[in-house]
Amino acid sequence: MQGPRVAHWEFPAPAPYPRTSVKSRHPPALRADFKFNLPLLHQDEKASMHRCARLARSTRRVCRGDVGYTHNTTPVAVIFRCCFSTTTRAAEPSSESTSSTQPTPPKSSKSTSTLFLTTLALAAAGATTYQLSSSSSPPSSGLHERIFTPYTITSKTPISPTSTIFTLSPPPSQTSPTSDTQSADPFAPLWPTIWSLTFRQPQLQVARSYTPLPPLSTTPTTPGALRFLIRREHGGEVSTYLSRLSVGSTIDIRGPVVEYAIPPDVSDVVFLAGGTGIAPALQAVRAVLGDGVSGEGDKSTNTTVKILWANRQRSECSGAPLPAPSWWRIWDTTPTSTEPPSPLVEELRGLEARYPGRVEVKYFIDAEGSFIDRRGILDAVKSAGKEEKEGRKLIMVAGPDGFVKHYVGPRVWEGGEEKQGPLGGVVKGLGLGVKGWEVVKL
Ligand SMILES: Cc1cc2nc3c(=O)[nH]c(=O)nc-3n(C[C@H](O)[C@H](O)[C@H](O)COP(=O)(O)OP(=O)(O)OC[C@H]3O[C@@H](n4cnc5c(N)ncnc54)[C@H](O)[C@@H]3O)c2cc1C
User: Fold this and answer.
1) Residue 209 domain-assigned?
2) Does the ipTM surpass 0.90?
3) What's the CA gap between 83 and 56, in Å, rounded?
4) CATH of the domain at 256
5) Residue 270: which domain range?
6) What tens digit of pLDDT does each residue of 303-353 get?
7) Is 238 touching ligand 1 by the criterion CB < 6 Å?
8) What whole-number distance in Å separates Cα of residue 18 and Cα of residue 2?
9) Whose CA is nearest to atom 47 of ligand 1?
10) 385 and 317, same domain (yes or no)
């Protein structure tokens, strides 16, 4: 069991928000319990479900969905189902993923030692396993909400010393399309949403959520292939495990889980992204503006997405325009950087070029003393709201806990449910400056 760890700071520059190293929001002390004492959850189901939901913070978080936990060290996949919603004025319902076929969690074992009951239990285990794998119809992507599917790493593109874009392909059985729709993109129905998948570290049986990057419109991909930007956390169980896997290895994945369904009538999005929070920001661009090919999502020609992307180090966004001392200057000019752009920065530039004036990205680098500040947010909001237009305006925030808390206040737990919590932080302080804007904490 691991002992307490000291947070690892890579540089001394102070950030305006606490630098929690990951977007995992459970108290670290509970992690060990999650990994090693999970079977104890059966002893007091009610308390354990609550605890399980709390522990699930780094593993997954949903908007209106559910949490399904599998723990496959026993013959039966033990499923805990914990519902927690994010019900505020900001968060709209996302697609429900409840299933009537959800098996009930196993009760505490009042075990007898008779062979008969053992046999019966094993038979029940087999039946439950069968039910899990067969009765809940898998989505067309081939992924299952509760059963892990092995995806193969087909490429790893380093972005920085700590971040990598992984490309994963589904098992061959799922790449032989049965229809044209499947051959196009089996995840197409999910792109109007912010969604994630759960990865498993098989030895420790721990799982974490990761957010797929939308497919590149410029590069043909295998149907069902997925890309992820994954940052290796110092001492992180799953991210370190993933970082060590080589091309050709498999990763166990399940899902999808919809975090938030972007309202169809959205007119403007200002997205504050911290680190790997750029992944949901890219999903937001895709959700609002479509894929640029099929016309999907691209209902209005003046819908805008402005991304304010903060990173700790320049290496996370190399090639990004250099920070300028004041917001108006970087918004109006694009100072050039001498270093070659990272694939991610190139991707963002590609979106800006494809949607001029509609997609804009501003970069902030902690180590260089540039932070997303009140002025930056207000300018983004004002420039988005220049034109009078119908539709909902969203300020979306994704990143490490401390980042979200600093800008919009923390998410909260109430009665075992995770909710958006009241608006707080910098955005609350903007008062009337953000009147009419809804806030979504991811
Ligand atoms: C919806 C959602 C989507 C996400 N999408 C992405 C994504 O696209 N890309 C991405 O990179 N991440 C994403 N994350 C974060 C990701 O799920 C993980 O939280 C992250 O990869 C870290 O997991 P880990 O297992 O490597 O680290 P953990 O093992 O959870 O450790 C996290 C940190 O805590 C420290 N720590 C561990 N144990 C202790 C202890 N006992 N005491 C003190 N400190 C401790 C570790 O050193 C490490 O720095 C997402 C999270 C959510 C909720």
Assistant:
1) yes
2) yes
3) 11
4) 2.40.30.10
5) 261-441
6) 999 999 999 999 999 999 866 555 544 555 555 567 889 999 999 999 999
7) yes
8) 23
9) 235
10) yes
